[in-house]
Design goal:
Elements: H1 3-27, H2 30-42, H3 50-55, H4 59-78, H5 81-94, H6 102-139
């Protein structure tokens, strides 16, 4: 398979994975969870396992929000106070969206930076392997 085709397939896989991940974390199971909870409310009270109650929450509440909160705390500790004050001022001037605190913005920036780093490492590794593959075919 040529390097150009591999690059196209990798880009297509990422382009397909991002909306699928968004759909899985935000939209999947939300309607079923609400309907199953409303069905439980109509029946007599039963003892329900706490683990099952946690699993009924959307993945966004179980995984994404705690991850963002943890990353936000770490980003806040690592960011100099002057930068945080400047970011707070810029967020206020831009019209801060509801629910988006400075800590949350710092956490998202940190996560996006880590994701960019990971994608960059894989991209550079694939580029190096393509260059070495071309170099080895020229020597033959």
């Amino acid at each position: 398979m040529s390097a150009h085709l591999q690059m196209i397939l990798a880009a297509a896989a990422v382009a397909f994975a991002v909306p699928l991940l968004f759909w899985g974390l935000v939209g999947a199971g939300r309607k079923r969870t609400r309907s199953s909870l409303s069905a439980l409310e109509g029946k007599e009270h039963r003892v329900v396992d706490e683990h099952q109650l946690q699993l009924r929450q959307p993945a966004r509440q179980r995984f994404v929000q705690p991850l963002l909160e943890s990353m936000a705390r770490r980003a806040r500790k690592l960011t100099p106070a002057g930068w945080v004050a400047s970011l707070e001022r810029r967020v206020r001037l831009a019209g801060s969206p509801s629910g988006w605190s400075v800590e949350r913005i710092l956490g998202v920036k940190l996560l996006l930076g880590i994701a960019t780093l990971i994608v960059g490492v894989f991209w550079i590794a694939s580029l190096i392997s393509v260059l070495f593959a071309r170099g080895s075919t020229r020597n033959v």
